[in-house]
Design a protein that fits this description.
288 residues; mainly alpha; 14 helices; 72% helix; globular
Length: 288
């Protein structure tokens, strides 16, 4: 395995370079896609600016409310995580059912490299990284305002920054695991567009602070999307580490949440690998 890792890195870099060359062949289309992505993020940001303009900006009595700059760190984290997923994984898993339908998955098996790796990284959507750049910009502004505010300024250190990117990687891994597991079901179900829609539906829950679910029947959603399908920790943990650092604000909202995020990442990765392997064992080639 140790000998294969450098090979996988070189293959991935080749995939990324080829994808960039393909994108630059149609520069106008690439530019339009980038402008479209940036326009969406700006409209999204404007929407929340309007909301905070009309809200009472005083913090809640229990300290659980997200103020504007804190929430913008959360929003920036959302853009960063989902742009990575959309750039590196989304275009590949969307084509997995087509590989099965056309029989081209047979040729993937012939390659002397891990099948899941080839299916996951064959293409890179470079235009999707426009949202990554916007996320970095908003994150920088949000953190700068938090550290320079006159009332209770944020104290930031290198450990917070490193942990932030570590948990961003954990969030990306969790979303990838869910996505590749759903894609693998194409072998059993054929075209499963409804399951891709399901991925978009449930990942929308991760785009909001988990405190909003800690009310009434929302607890059931909080439990489901924290412990069963752990998408609520995808954005909440890294954003909390950087913006407000993790503190106990109710059950599982403090330091235990960060430890659970690591466990959930490992479990999701193992389960997705198992699901993918089982699906491949059920595959019947186009020539059989």
């Amino acid at each position: 395995m140790s000998e294969q890792q450098p090979v996988l890195v070189r293959v991935f870099l080749t995939f990324a370079r080829n994808s960039l060359v393909r994108e630059m062949t149609f520069r106008t289309n690439f530019f339009i896609q980038c402008v479209s992505a940036i326009s969406w993020t700006l409209m999204n940001l404007g929407f929340y600016l309007i909301i905070f303009h009309h809200l009472n900006r005083k913090p809640l009595a229990d300290g659980s409310g997200w103020q504007q700059n804190e929430f913008f760190v959360f929003l920036a984290t959302t853009w960063i995580v989902f742009s990575i997923v959309q750039a590196f994984f989304m275009p590949n898993v969307q084509e997995f059912s087509e590989l099965i339908r056309t029989g081209n998955l047979d040729f993937v098996f012939l390659k002397p490299i891990d099948t899941q790796f080839l299916i996951s990284f064959a293409k890179v959507d470079w235009s999707a990284l426009a949202n990554f750049v916007m996320g970095i910009l908003l994150l920088t502004v949000g953190v700068w305002r938090l550290t320079t505010q006159s009332n209770n300024p944020l104290s930031l250190n290198l450990a917070n920054v490193l942990l932030y990117w570590f948990y961003v990687a954990c969030g990306v891994t969790i979303l990838y695991s869910l996505m590749i597991s759903l894609a693998a079901t194409s072998i059993w179900l054929g075209r499963n567009q409804s399951l891709y829609d399901f991925w978009f539906y449930i990942t929308n829950f991760s785009r909001y602070p988990m405190e909003i679910y800690a009310r009434s029947w929302g607890w059931s959603l909080w439990g489901l999307f924290t412990f069963v399908i752990p998408i609520l920790i995808v954005i909440n943990v890294p954003a909390r580490i950087l913006a407000r650092p993790l503190r106990p604000e109710g059950p599982w909202l403090g330091l235990p949440l960060s430890g659970f995020a690591i466990l959930a990442t490992l479990v999701c990765l193992v389960i997705s690998r198992r699901v993918f392997s089982l699906a491949l064992q059920s595959y019947r080639s186009a020539s059989s």
